[in-house]
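$ ./design --mode recover --in tokens.txt
reading tokens...
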């Protein structure tokens, strides 16, 4: 099984160190209880030896017996307290790491992809494995300290017994190192196979209707479950490692314990040791063996390494860093200068693109499929990041704007809305808590959604899961959500694609009035959408080929071919107005708020 690259391990190790450092305060109660428990483990054998020797001398149990009994009871109380304290600390650590992963995934620019299955696996499996490390390490460190104390006690009682026990230490270290390395690789393979399976399943569920309509249910089931073989292989590899390690540790520790007790027994028989010391040796051997008998901790360490390596890889993905420059006053003029965006393999997706969006005007962005329209549109709100060049709003680079200011300056709407919230009102006001009902209703009226919303069982208070909505109705609710967010620059993406011609015209007229005086970049696929904008920016070959009114560009046959596949591909007569877009409003910070 291939090893992970050194950089991956270094990032994973740094993440584990950060997790441990950040959650150490929450582990203080657990560690204190563990320390008391270990101290009692060291004290009990000595007290027991004192009691036995006193009885054999005829002195009676006396005070040592009472102390021994009290120590045993207190140790039992510590044993009862440790599990809930450990669970609480682990839960906090996992919650912190899950929050970091989700937050980072939502901030990753659109062109940097993480498969859905990988994202789910990291949040549900890798993060909990890595997040459980601090509790395991705390327990291991305290236990190790107690084992060292027991080991020292063996040497103090009888150096021969201590020397016999010492022989097991190097062997156990070799076994442990081999187990951790191999188990981490096996668990990494298991997580990878799980991520592949989850990705395939999520894709199949999204396309369930297509699968049923195509009659390919059996074939798709086999395709989705294909990674099960890899999941099984990785799981069996882990089980084999555990089985081999358990019996090796078991044999080693049994032999060590037997030899140590035999050595102490010969000391008692030869008069070198009092009888009570034999019981002390037996107790301290059990304590000292704890350092060598930590298969559960080793497994937790291996899984934490595997989980941390995967999570650290995601956290290493670049995300936009908010700026610190105050938002300038201005009407919302946008300029793109020499913008270059490259793919992961170095291909130029945008190659020196220049564009000016005049303040308060609407500009349609058109081009063939794959020309980079959505990529360019994403630059305004930092959903995409340029490799070269700059994007300016009223003379300030968007990379210099604080996140909150950028969200208030540039807002987005996409073609396919994802409605989030408990009710229809919540869905429209999403991202702006406390939005007044009047504002929500005004936005819905502008998007021509108010009429059908009021027909719902509870109107705007209807739970989303009880609101039967068509695709066009979802588009209008998504558009209403966009209109409820005041901004200087609106990036709109083919808003009315799901509406019939009459409804589209009504929505366009209403929204034009609402957005009058606002700067609009409209990613257009329809001729009618482009024609309603003040100007058209024609994107071709990674550059802006021309900027002019639609009726002027229409004279170019190459421009007309951009719309050749559109049902409404006919020469328009007007150029005024604004287009609209539906869908999911996104923060301009760089994260998707769907």
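writing sequence...
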């Amino acid at each position: 099984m291939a090893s992970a690259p050194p950089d991956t391990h270094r990032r994973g190790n740094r993440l584990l160190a950060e997790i441990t450092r950040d959650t150490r305060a929450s582990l203080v109660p657990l560690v204190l209880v563990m320390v008391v428990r270990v101290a009692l483990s060291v004290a009990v054998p000595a007290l027991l030896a004192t009691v036995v020797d006193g009885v054999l001398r005829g002195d009676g149990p006396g005070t040592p017996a009472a102390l021994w009994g009290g120590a045993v009871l207190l140790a039992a109380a510590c044993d009862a307290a440790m599990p809930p304290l450990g669970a609480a600390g682990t839960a906090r650590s996992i919650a912190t790491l899950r929050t970091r992963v989700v937050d980072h995934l939502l901030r990753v620019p659109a062109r940097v992809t993480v498969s859905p299955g990988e994202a789910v696996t990291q949040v549900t499996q890798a993060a909990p494995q890595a997040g459980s490390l601090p509790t395991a390490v705390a327990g291991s460190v305290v236990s190790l300290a107690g084992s060292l104390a027991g080991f020292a006690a063996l040497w103090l009682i009888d150096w021969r017994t201590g020397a016999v026990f010492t022989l097991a230490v190097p062997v156990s270290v070799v076994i442990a190192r081999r187990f951790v390395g191999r188990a981490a690789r096996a668990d990494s393979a298991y997580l990878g196979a799980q991520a592949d399976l989850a990705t395939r399943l999520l894709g199949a569920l999204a396309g369930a209707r297509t699968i049923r309509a195509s009659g390919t249910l059996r074939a798709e089931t086999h395709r989705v479950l294909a990674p099960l073989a890899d999941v099984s292989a990785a799981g069996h590899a882990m089980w084999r490692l555990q089985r081999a390690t358990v019996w090796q540790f078991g044999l080693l520790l049994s032999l060590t314990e037997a030899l140590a007790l035999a050595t102490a027994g010969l000391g008692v028989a030869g008069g070198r040791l009092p009888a009570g010391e034999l019981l002390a040796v037996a107790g301290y051997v059990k304590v000292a063996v704890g350092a060598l008998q930590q298969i559960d901790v080793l497994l937790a360490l291996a899984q934490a390494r595997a989980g941390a390596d995967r999570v650290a890889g995601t956290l290493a993905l670049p995300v936009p860093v908010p700026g610190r420059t105050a938002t300038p006053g201005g009407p919302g003029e946008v300029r793109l200068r020499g913008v270059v965006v490259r793919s992961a393999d170095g291909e130029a997706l945008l190659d020196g693109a220049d564009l000016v969006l005049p303040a308060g005007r609407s500009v349609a962005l058109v081009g063939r499929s794959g020309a980079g329209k959505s990529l360019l549109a994403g630059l305004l709100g930092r959903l995409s990041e340029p490799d070269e060049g700059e994007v300016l709003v009223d003379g300030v680079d968007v990379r210099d704007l604080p996140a909150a200011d950028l969200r208030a300056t540039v807002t987005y709407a996409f073609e396919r809305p994802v409605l989030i919230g408990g009710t229809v009102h919540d869905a429209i006001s999403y991202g702006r808590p406390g939005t007044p009902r009047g504002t929500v209703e005004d936005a819905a009226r502008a998007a021509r959604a108010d009429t059908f919303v009021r027909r719902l069982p509870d109107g705007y208070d209807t739970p989303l899961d009880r609101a039967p909505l068509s695709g066009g109705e979802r588009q209008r609710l998504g558009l209403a959500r966009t209109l409820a967010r005041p901004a200087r620059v609106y990036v709109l993406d083919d808003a009315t694609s799901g509406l019939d011609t009459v409804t589209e015209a009504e929505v366009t007229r209403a929204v034009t009035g609402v957005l009058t005086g606002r700067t609009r970049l409209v990613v257009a696929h329809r001729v009618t959408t482009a024609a309603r904008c003040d100007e058209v920016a024609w994107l071709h070959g990674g550059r802006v080929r021309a900027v002019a009114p639609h009726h002027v560009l229409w004279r170019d046959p190459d421009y007309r071919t951009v719309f050749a596949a559109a049902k409404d591909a006919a020469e328009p007569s007007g150029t005024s107005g604004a287009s609209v877009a539906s869908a999911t409003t996104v923060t301009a910070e760089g994260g998707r708020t769907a």
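exit 0
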